[in-house]
Design a protein that fits this description.
Number of strands of chain A: 4
Strand order of the largest sheet of chain B: 6-7-8-3-9-10
Oligomer: heterodimer
Strand content of chain A: 5-15%
Order of helices and strands of chain A: HHEHEHHEHEHHHH
Distance between the termini of chain B: 26 Å
Helix content of chain A: 55-70%
Structural class of chain B: alpha/beta
Order of helices and strands of chain B: EEEHEEHEHHHEHEHEE
Structural class of chain A: alpha+beta
Shape of chain B: globular
Largest sheet of chain A: 4 strands, antiparallel
Chain lengths: 303, 225
């Protein structure tokens, strides 16, 4: 026996209308908690995107001149030879043109930008693991290699970058903890909303049972109500996370000229990462809505 | 149609509501359940609709032992049993028509069936002209007629009536009894719990008397006591 759609929408709609204040409380709490949860997701992506090139103990990157600025393989190899012979350098890895192009495309996923860029205008690099990781030692290495012919520029993962990493991780964990506490709150809140709806309709439920409505027929409108609260809340939170991405991370990322935020400009999340986050949020909202209403129903609806 | 075999029901507080009950009610019979308050009449009704489980014994309803019925089949049992109550149990925010239609809607009846059956059932109880009224706009007798229309709209095999005239004046009660008698004439088995001596004595139907959970009298064409 199928559930008639018209009946289902009418009953669910009247439940939500009757319970409007509680429903609004549920989906606003859901929206806030999922926005925080999603923001911690985006922040995780931003940190990992910004620090990807600094993994595996690499503390210094020596970019060599790209081909369209007169760079050539023998010149690049000469720089590498010098690095390998330096007693203060523990390890050197070559980051060639294909890898450089790939990294560039990850950082700038927009097609309009990548179309203009070809391998010949990108600088390959030597990734350097120094013996001594202190700031003074790294600065000394930078001073030497900046002047070597064929070198475009030398960048380092100095303490500032590492500190930012640490602080953002701390902040992200705090936001995650707050959002998890709110998610517990919203689960209980939706459960209570459904309980109130069951109480408000106890006469109808009694009649339904008497005339032989199946348990599913009685349950489904309440579960749909929980589902709608979850998804509406999650939908609002997707908007919230989009706003955080658009007006915070994208601003930092897009503002390449500003010196004061130059350290933060690699903090960004791509559209694909945002889409994935949105899907996670919507699924989580739907799951929490259905779960808490199902628990309420089994506890308060003796069907 | 209904057969009780050594049925016993004890509530968790120790009250024995039905004690070793035996009865056989054939199809199309009209039976009064009489006895003082707390004698087990309502429990017997609740056992027949599986709102309560017996501790022991068998309860046969149209050939099936409902004590053994799995929970998910209970709705189908109830679709064969119409119920009416002293307090009517109508939904105040629905019209008369919607109250009766609700019973069909929630068991998934198609719209065409609802459109045909609801007016027919309301016609049977004489309320065709009040279909768009709400329950509070009707008299007590009219409200009970709506609840009878709702109980009968699905053409059940059995009609259980728990003190249906308990809130009504004698003249109105007579009208309700005529209606139940008419429904009984269509072949529906009617079981009615009542305290109304006048009705039982006038109708001269089968009487089953309960006292502290035991069946103390089962008499065809009986009187109240």
């Amino acid at each position: 026996m199928g559930l008639p759609v018209e009946y289902l929408l009418r009953e669910t709609g009247s439940n939500i209308k009757r319970n409007l204040t509680l429903s609004i409380a549920s989906f606003l709490t859901m929206a806030v908690s999922l926005t925080l949860f999603g923001t911690s997701f985006i922040a995780r992506y931003a940190v990992s995107n910004a620090t990807a090139k600094w993994g595996k103990n690499i503390e210094m990157i020596v970019y060599v001149k790209p081909m369209d600025k007169g760079g050539a393989q023998d010149q690049w190899d000469a720089v590498g030879k010098q690095l390998k012979e330096n007693p203060n350098v523990k390890e050197v890895r070559w980051f060639g043109l294909p890898e450089t192009l790939k990294e560039f495309e990850t950082e700038f996923p927009d097609a309009s930008q990548t179309k203009l860029i070809t391998a010949s205008s990108l600088p390959p690099s030597w990734r350097v693991v120094p013996v001594d990781k202190s700031e003074a030692s790294i600065r000394a290495l930078v001073a030497v290699y900046e002047k070597v012919p064929g070198v475009l520029t030398v960048v380092t993962a100095l303490d500032t970058v590492r500190t930012i990493n640490r602080v953002t991780t701390l902040g992200r964990n705090f936001v995650l903890a707050v959002s998890l506490a709110l998610l517990v709150a919203v689960t209980l809140l939706i459960g209570n909303t459904i309980r109130t709806a069951i109480f408000a309709r106890r006469r109808e439920i009694e009649v339904m049972k008497l005339v032989g409505a199946t348990n599913w027929f009685i349950r489904v409108p309440f579960m749909l109500e929980g589902f709608i609260q979850g998804v509406v809340g999650a939908g609002i939170s997707v908007g919230g996370v989009w706003a955080v991405k658009r007006f915070f991370f994208d601003k930092l990322h897009g503002d390449r000229s500003s010196g004061s935020v130059s350290l933060l400009r690699d903090f960004f999340a791509s559209s694909a990462q945002f889409r994935f986050t949105a899907i996670v949020l919507l699924s989580l909202g739907a799951f929490i809505g259905i779960l808490s209403s199902a628990v309420s129903i089994s506890r308060y609806l003796d069907v | 149609m209904i057969k009780l075999e050594n049925v016993t029901k004890t509530y968790p507080n120790g009250t024995i509501a039905v004690r070793n009950g035996n009865a056989d009610i054939p199809k199309g019979e009209f039976v009064f359940l009489v006895g003082p308050s707390g004698s087990g009449k309502s429990t017997l009704m609740r056992l027949l609709t599986r709102q309560e489980h017996p501790d022991s014994g068998s309860i046969w309803v149209s050939g099936k032992d409902i004590a053994q019925l799995s929970n998910y089949k209970v709705p189908w049992l109830r679709r064969n049993i119409g119920c009416i109550f002293q307090d009517f149990k109508l939904l105040p925010n629905k019209t008369v028509y919607e109250n009766v239609a609700f019973a069909l809607e929630v068991i998934g009846s198609p719209k065409s069936v609802i459109r045909a059956q609801v007016p027919a059932s309301l016609d049977l109880v004489g309320l065709s002209k009040k279909m768009q009224n709400r329950p509070h706009e009707l008299s007590g007798g009219e409200q009970q007629r709506v609840s009878i229309a709702r109980a009968f709209v699905n053409r059940p095999l059995i009609l259980l009536a728990d003190e249906p005239t308990g809130n009504l004046d004698p003249a109105t009660s007579v009208g309700i009894m005529r209606l139940l008698d008419r429904i009984n004439q269509t072949g529906t088995t009617v079981v009615m719990a009542t305290h109304d001596q006048g009705i039982v004595d006038t109708m001269r139907k089968r009487v089953i008397e309960l006292d502290r959970g035991s069946i103390v009298r089962d008499q065809s064409r009986g009187v109240y006591g």
